[in-house]
Amino acid sequence: MSRTLVLVRHGQSEWNLKNLFTGWRDVELTEQGHAEAKAAGQKLKALGLKFDIAFTSVLKRAQVTCQHILDAVGQSDLETIRNVALNERDYGDLSGLNKDDARAKWGEEQVHIWRRSYDVPPPGGESLKDTGARVWPYYLHDMQPHVLRGETVLVAAHGNSLRAMIMALEGMTGEEIVKLELNTGIPIVYRLNADSTVASKEVLS
């Protein structure tokens, strides 16, 4: 029984590079981002992992990352489900803004609160708690059953949608999860017990 869940944040995007709030804006990977995604695939191939199904968001930076990984492990045609539930947190009025420009407009403290608090959303956007409200039901109903059946599942998504999943998997508090940094293109391999708790976790940095 494998019961393996692999989470990967997409490779570096053009807006990551430019220090912009991205959210639901659909931007491309940089050359570095493509390289990170391919390297993630090679790390997973080295572990001998084969996937039964893959999940990603409706945003191309996650989809392309997912495809690079599947290509690397020799499963280019694997069934891949795209769902808006796995999209990045919606940054609302901050989307497209440079983070320094946002600090100049609203003040450093306010922008820090929007970025790093658990339940305070930016204007017109989502908090991490709001993001979790769409990620958690999708994980429980659509993803976790595959894992608990003994399958190996790949999820290529975004910093905040993955934080919401990790919060549920590891039983973290809101205060704990906002401090968790997820690097682009670094796979996290969870093996679950039959009761859905985490048996082991390995970060392939």
TrEMBL record:
The keyword Transmembrane does not apply. The active site is at H10 (tele-phosphohistidine intermediate), E88 (proton donor/acceptor). It catalyses: (2R)-2-phosphoglycerate = (2R)-3-phosphoglycerate. One of its GO terms (molecular function) is phosphoglycerate mutase activity. Its EC number is 5.4.2.11. The record marks H158 as: Transition state stabilizer. Substrate binds at residues 9-16, 22-23, 61, 88-91, 99, 115-116, 159-160. Catalyzes the interconversion of 2-phosphoglycerate and 3-phosphoglycerate. Belongs to the phosphoglycerate mutase family. BPG-dependent PGAM subfamily. Homodimer. NCBIfam families: pgm_1, PRK01295.1. This is 2,3-bisphosphoglycerate-dependent phosphoglycerate mutase. The lineage of its organism: Bacteria, Pseudomonadati, Pseudomonadota, Alphaproteobacteria, Hyphomicrobiales. The gene is gpmA.
